[in-house]
Amino acid sequence: MRKRRDASEKQPQYVWTNVELEWEEHHYIEARYWAASGELKITVNGDPLLEKNLHESQQA
What we know:
Blueprint: E1 3-5, E2 13-20, E3 26-34, E4 39-44, E5 47-53, H1 54-59
Antiparallel strand pairs: 1-2, 2-3, 3-4, 4-5
């Protein structure tokens, strides 16, 4: 893990890292979470992988 922001009054919380495979393939993975709205966004190399509202999924 390269960088993170834990739960606090600042939003979003996030974590990001680089994944480097032995054959020189590199991936930048970032997850951001907005606790107030429940929005979760995960990207790989800037491309969306997952966008989900966790508040909505808990109500279902």
